[in-house]
């Protein structure tokens, strides 16, 4: 039991980075992973459950890697298990599959942070860089998440934008 005002116990590891999948629905011009995707797949649930036993040793879990985390059928359960283990959890996404329903679920799980890959400020340039993406979908999905947070009067997940300098 922790007393009010006491600090969380220190954990041996600051961060675990777990790649749920190398799969992605886009063909981005700068992506170094595209050649691997032909033979790479998605982390099995069995593999994740073996890793999950070590989650209590990490302060934070980043479910980001060479693929799009929302393509993993197990992402929600992975986040749930990380949160239950007392970890901060988040991931970076292209937001193409971040539906309002998925956003509702992630907010309910108390996802701590989410970063959106946005490499241009105009639809035409964004869609030339992130081939297969739709700028309007990106903006709509980000707005939906923000709206869910506002309706619940909460500040998490923290929302960030990231870009690849080219």
Short structural description:
The chain is α/β, with parallel strands linked by helices and 166 residues long. It is 31% helix and 18% strand.
What does this molecule look like?
- Helix 3 links the parallel strand 4 and strand 5.
- The strands form two sheets. The chain has a five-stranded parallel sheet, covered by helices on one side.
- Helix 3 runs parallel beside helix 5.
- The mean pLDDT is 90.
- The chain contains five helices and seven strands.
- The chain is globular and about 50 Å long.
Helix content: 25-40%
The structure class reads alpha/beta
Main beta sheet? 5 strands, parallel
Terminal-residue CA separation: 50 Å
Across the major sheet, the strand order is 1-3-4-5-7
- Order of SSEs: EEHEHEHEHEHE
Total helices: the number is 5
Q: Please compute the radius of gyration using only Cα atoms.
A: 17 Å
Low-confidence parts lasting 5 or more residues at pLDDT below 50?
A: none
Number of strands: 7
Oligomerization state of this entry?
A: single chain
On the 0 to 100 scale, the average pLDDT is 90
Global shape:
globular
Q: In percent terms, what proportion of residues is strand? A: 15-25%
SSE layout and pairing:
Elements: E1 13-17, E2 27-28, H1 45-52, E3 58-62, H2 75-84, E4 88-93, H3 100-108, E5 113-117, H4 123-129, E6 130-131, H5 135-152, E7 158-162
Parallel strand pairs: 1-3, 3-4, 4-5, 5-7
Antiparallel strand pairs: 2-6
Keywords:
166 residues, alpha/beta, two-stranded antiparallel ribbon, globular
């Amino acid at each position: 039991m922790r007393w009010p005002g006491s600090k969380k116990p220190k954990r041996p590891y600051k961060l675990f980075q777990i790649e749920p999948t190398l799969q992605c629905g886009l063909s981005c011009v700068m992506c170094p992973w595209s050649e691997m995707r032909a033979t790479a797949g998605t982390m099995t649930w069995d593999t994740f459950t073996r890793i999950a036993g070590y989650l209590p040793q990490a302060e934070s879990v980043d479910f980001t890697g060479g693929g799009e985390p929302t393509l993993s059928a197990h992402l929600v359960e992975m986040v749930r298990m990380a949160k239950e283990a007392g970890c901060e959890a988040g991931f970076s996404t292209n937001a193409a599959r971040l539906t309002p329903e998925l956003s509702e679920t992630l907010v309910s799980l108390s996802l701590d942070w989410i970063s959106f890959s946005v490499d241009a400020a105009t639809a035409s340039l964004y869609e030339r860089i992130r081939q297969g993406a739709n700028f309007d979908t990106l903006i709509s999905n980000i707005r939906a998440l923000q709206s869910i947070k506002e309706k619940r009067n909460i500040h998490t997940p923290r929302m960030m934008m990231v870009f690849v300098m080219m």
